[in-house]
Amino acid sequence: MKFAAALLVALLLTSLRAADRPNVVVILADDQGWGDLSINGNKNIRTPNIDSIGRDGVVFDRFYVCPVCAPTRAEFLTGRYHSRGGVRGVSTGQERLNLDERTLAEAFVAAGYTTGAFGKWHNGSQWPYHPNARGFQEYYGFTSGHWGQYFDAPLEHNGQPVRGKGYITDDLTDHALAFIEQNRAKPFFCYVPYNTPHSPFCVPEEHWQHFANDPVVQRGLDGDTEDLPVTRCVLAMTESLDKNVGRILRRLDELKLRENTIVIYFSDNGPNSWRWNGGMKGRKGTTDEGGVRAPFLIRWPGRIPSGRTVPEIAGAIDLLPTLTRLAGVARVGTKPLDGVDLSPLLFGPASNWPDRLIFSHQNGNVSARSQRYRFDAKGALFDMTADPGQQTDVSAARAAETTRFTDAVTTWRSAVFGADGAAAPASKTAVKGGKKGGGNAKVANDGRPFPVGYREFPRAPLPARDGVPHGGVRRSANAPNSSYFTNWTSPEDSITWDIEVHQTGTYAVALSYTCPAADAGSAIEVAFNAASLSGKVAPAWDPPLIKNEDRVPRVGESYLKDFHALELGTVKLEAGRGQLTLRAKQVAGKQVMDLRQVTLTLQ
Q1: Is 157 a catalytic residue?
Q2: Is residue 521 part of a domain?
Q3: Residue 434, in any domain of the structure
Q4: Cis amide prior to 71 (ω within 30 degrees)
Q5: If we measure between CA atoms, which residue out of 162, 168, 164, 175 comes closest to residue 150?
Q6: Residue 202 annotated as catalytic
Q7: Average confidence (pLDDT) over 452-464
Q8: CATH code for the domain of 214
Q9: What pLDDT is recorded for position 426?
Q10: Which contiguous run of DSSP H or E holds residue 399?
């Protein structure tokens, strides 16, 4: 059977080389749990469009991603465990994919595909970490970990700031559909990484009204602190996702691309709140089954048989070798892959498929999954066939199996983190005092500077997420991704960014700020090594926080507002590394300003 399956794959892909290569559409949900889809048994919602991908193709029943967002994206893009590529967290630079890693998009570009990404990138903001530098010729969305504004959102298009239109999921889909239509006559690779149902919990009224007052008939496990308004909003956001997936599938049908397009749907980690998830232990941020098992559906009408469920374990690390194989595309780069080609499993049962281990890592915690067992981060062993909820530790009764897992985790740690097996820096932040809802966060030192000054991509944003506050300056919320700096009241306060100027030249300096009229006029200075530029905070700009979008109040993440651009002028910066420092030389009122971003643009 194994030989027959391999022969079938070879014959199918040989015939593919004689024909046009398939288009590829990859749809990635954000913080959607395995249990959030009706195809997986959720009775609180219907997701017919997403479910249809599985009915018309193949469902992987045991598909594993990472406990949090950025690492999963890196593993999908590279076919390698995220820590190998420098992705060790979700913010403050730890989300960046090392520049010597080669991506799936680069492989498709090298094969003559047109590539586009529409949504949440989360693997680096500045060139050459930006998606346009990693193989995506067209990019529309936001590069941060998560976004604080879901209606008419401030986004970017190929590095230039733009204003989105309407609800962000609809808007991202609009741009993905335009890309598909524009490239329908040639092979394309279209990546749609949505940012829902990630918080903040915002959704259009048309979806919210379907769930706002309905009973939640399936609940989280006993003891879980389920927040029902959050669950209802997640359901509404998932309904919105399903609608937009349906729009993509219909457009492929209308353009007669259905038969020649591979469509994939999956999510990046477990659910972002306690809710029904098939009885699994854990949620987002954990290395237990519920934190890392995700839905995975794939179809290729006329090629991949429909209506099958694959029981073999698989993961995000497998998508690069699988998609390049299916499309007849040669991978680029020479680094060894951690993933395997799943195509034999797609075309029929593959007997004697080798058992394997898939590792999950978060904040120094490592678990490992085989086809039958999960070895958790505390050294407990669970028989996932007999005990899918991880209730009974069988490590003592399965001593040989426990030893095998213990040795495998030790070896994996050494291979991924170095000879000492040290864990990567923590991705979470810890607040050190201050008012509720904000603070200076202790964040791990990423060690890599933020790059500035590339002629091919002259605009370099330096958001508050990547800066370090000093003195009394604080973040607007604990979560850096969606924050801005506030409480800047003294000339002794400052904000710094560790940057590396790639090219000596003249740079325009702009600040994204707000400031009440009573405080306008502070004298400020931007300095880098021997260079400096001074200016005043004017005019006043004091818009309200945008709070009318949310269905559930925010906890730990900032409300945003519309920031104004303060053009300070130009300054000559010499190539090299140093601290970009922003300070006040004189404070006109009670505060200097609230600061969202500094932007340096090579002239």
Answers
A1: no
A2: yes
A3: no
A4: no
A5: 168
A6: no
A7: 97
A8: 3.40.720.10
A9: 39
A10: helix 399-417
Whose tokens are 């399903």? That residue is: 242
CATH classification at residue 568:
2.60.120.260
* Residue 216, burial from CB neighbour count under 10 angstroms (0-12, 13-18, 19+): middle
Which residue, 417, 432, 450, sits at the end of a domain? 417
Is residue 541 scored above 50 in pLDDT?
yes
pLDDT tens digits, one per residue of 279-306:
999 999 999 999 999 999 999 999 999 9
State the residue range of the domain holding 468: 440-602
Looking at the structure, do residues 445 and 408 belong to the same domain, yes or no?
A: no
pLDDT, average across residues 542-564: 94
Tokens standing for residue 286: 């954990």
The answer to whether residue 268 scores a pLDDT higher than 90 is yes
pTM exceeds 0.90 for this model: yes
Query: Is residue 277 in some structural domain?
Result: yes
> Of the listed 66, 82, 122, 146, which one is catalytic?
122
Does the pLDDT of residue 130 top 70, yes or no? yes
pLDDT band at 185 (very low <50, low <70, confident <90, very high): very high
pLDDT at 592 over 70: yes
Q: Return phi, psi of residue 519, to 5°.
A: -110, -5
What integer best gives the mean pLDDT of the chain?
93
Inter-residue contact 588 to 521 (CB < 8 Å): yes
pLDDT in tens, 216-227: 999 999 999 999
On whether the CB atoms of residues 71 and 359 are closer than 8 A, the answer is: no
Rounded distance between C-alpha atoms, residue 349 and residue 351, angstroms: 6
Please calculate the CA angle 236-238-243 and round it to the nearest 5 degrees: 95
Q: How buried is residue 270: exposed, middle or buried, by Cβ count under 10 Å (0-12/13-18/19+)?
A: buried
Helices 2-18 and 319-327 cross at an angle (nearest 10°) of 60
Is there a single domain that holds both residue 298 and residue 341?
Answer: yes
d(CA 241, CA 180): 18
Of 66, 69, 202, 515, catalytic: 69
Does residue 168 sit in helix, strand or coil?
Answer: helix
Cis bond leading into 354, ω under 30°? no
Q: How many domains does the chain have?
A: 3
Residues 8 and 75 grouped into a single domain: yes
